[in-house]
Specification:
Layout: E1 10-17, E2 21-24, H1 25-31, H2 38-42, E3 47-49, H3 57-71, E4 79-85, H4 96-100, H5 102-105, E5 116-117, H6 123-135, E6 144-153, E7 165-174, E8 179-190, E9 196-197, E10 207-208, H7 210-236, E11 247-250, H8 255-272, H9 298-307, H10 309-315, H11 321-326, H12 333-345, E12 353-360, E13 364-372, H13 377-383, H14 385-390, E14 393-394, H15 397-410, E15 430-435, E16 441-445
Parallel strand pairs: 2-14, 4-5, 4-6, 11-12
Antiparallel strand pairs: 1-7, 1-8, 2-3, 6-7, 8-13, 9-10, 12-13, 15-16
Length: about 450
């Protein structure tokens, strides 16, 4: 029997996993003897999730996928594609996806296409695009796709460490979804740059050129936005500005960059419509165009921040609550923001268009969008964001530093047995039991104290 063509392809279900422990950024500022507000105002962050030796990229993705399947009672046999986006590498050959196959073994489903996607923070978006395109192709067999986007973002001691974090997001992709992706509306920009990369395979820590990375991010916003605008105007037959997007979600290394990026979209609108009276407060910066000087002009940055503040508050703020509290999740970052928006806006999004900007260093970036076509109240209920955030455990900065030192010592050290207590994990989370003498990893799941599912 021929499978009927899919309609309204998008997100059927979504869930996020984040660790039980976090460090407060105000307390970390004091501990690091940093100027007051450097992490909380300068970066715009509030708290940062982290993990010890009991959790790795495999375990957090196992937790995300099993959590999604449990909450939505998903039949493992209904999944035909499973792709992972991550840059947290613990094996140079074996994919995270193959570890996740253990979750489908009992159901006898070994027929799942897809593997891992790797390019800094863009891998989750690549996995999502691949999954959408699989469902829309002649190879689709009628089953769902499952996309996992997550990372453990940690940095060496220094200025970049407060921009770490950890989370994994799992998304069920299929037809007749409440969240439907816009077809034909996608802007993509890619280059060869060294703004952030991980050449040292013996370390979890990246090499980062902070200024270059910000410039690359903003340049990618410019180019993706321009392409999206052109495609929107051709498809919809009307002028496009950021006002056509009811909400915008950004990849969020830290919140201040998100603020700059929304302002950058408004700036791009001004460059096209500079004669309109409403742009008079920022019209004087038109001569800078989108060249390198426009990325670091302090006067322009301040003026645009003030000019776009109301737009940011109405279109972006709700998507930043969870990222500001768990930190950067690299591949998962954009989709952590999406979970935040869905949780706080709920069914007020029905009938609305949401833009998503994805960026991965190196670089790869895309701007795309979706419409919410029906109630998402079941999604809001299952994410349970504010309740779950309130149940986390705050850890002192000195214990946070010790935990990361422990990870340093065990990274690539050969066989070991994790030593941290399971009390550091939320119920239902997967954890690492052992790395044996052949570097094979074994996992278990922490039991629930009472029937919850």
């Amino acid at each position: 029997m021929t499978t009927p063509p899919p309609k309204n392809v998008g997100i059927v279900a979504i869930d996020v996993y984040f660790p039980q422990r976090y460090v407060n950024q105000t307390e970390l500022e004091a501990f690091d003897k940093a100027p007051a507000g450097k992490y909380t105002v300068g970066l715009g962050q509030t708290n940062m999730s982290f993990v010890g030796d009991r959790e790795d990229i495999n375990s957090i993705c196992l937790s995300a996928v099993q959590g999604l399947m449990d909450k939505y009672a998903i039949d493992p046999r209904s999944i035909g594609r499973l792709e992972v986006g991550t840059e947290t590498i613990i094996d140079k050959s074996k994919s995270v996806k193959t570890t996740l196959m253990d979750l489908f073994k009992a159901a006898g489903n070994m027929s799942l296409e897809g593997v891992d996607n790797i390019n800094a923070c863009y891998g989750g978006t690549s996995a999502l695009f691949n999954s959408i395109q699989w469902i829309e192709s002649s190879y689709w067999d009628g089953r769902f796709a499952l996309v996992v986007a997550g990372d453990i973002a940690i940095y060496a001691e220094g200025n970049a460490r407060p921009t770490g974090g950890c989370a994994a997001v799992a998304m069920l992709i299929g037809p007749n979804a409440p969240i439907v992706f816009d077809t034909g509306l996608r802007g993509t920009h890619m280059e060869n740059v060294y703004d952030f990369y991980k050449p040292n395979l013996n370390s979890e820590y990246p090499v980062v050129d902070g200024k270059l990375s910000v410039d690359c991010y903003l340049r990618a916003v410019d180019n993706c936005y321009s392409q999206y605008r052109s495609k929107f105007e051709k498809k919809e037959g009307k002028v496009f500005t950021v006002e056509e997007l009811d909400s915008v979600v950004f990849h969020a290394p830290y919140n201040k960059l998100v603020q700059k990026s929304l302002a950058r979209m408004v700036y791009n609108d001004m460059l096209v419509h500079a004669d309109e009276a409403k742009y008079s407060p920022v019209r004087s910066f038109k001569e800078l165009g989108t060249g390198p000087k426009s990325y670091s002009n302090v006067d322009m940055e301040k003026a645009l921040a003030a000019f776009s503040k109301n737009t940011y508050n109405s279109k972006v703020e709700q998507s930043t609550v969870l990222p500001k509290n768990v930190g950067n999740a690299y591949c998962g970052s954009l989709y952590v923001g999406l979970c935040s928006l869905l949780s706080l806006a709920g069914d007020s999004l029905v009938g609305k268009r949401v833009g998503l900007f994805s960026y991965g260093s190196g670089l790869a970036a895309s701007l795309f969008s979706f419409r919410v076509c029906s109630s998402i109240s079941p999604i809001v209920k299952e994410i349970d964001m504010l309740n779950r955030l309130s149940k986390r455990t705050k850890i002192s900065p000195d214990q946070f530093v010790l935990t990361l030192k422990g990870r340093e010592q065990k990274h690539d050290c050969g066989a070991y047995t994790p030593s941290e207590s399971l009390d550091t994990l939320p119920e239902g989370a997967f954890y690492l039991n052992q790395v044996d003498d052949k570097m094979r990893r074994q996992y278990s799941r922490k039991a629930f104290s009472s029937a919850k599912l």
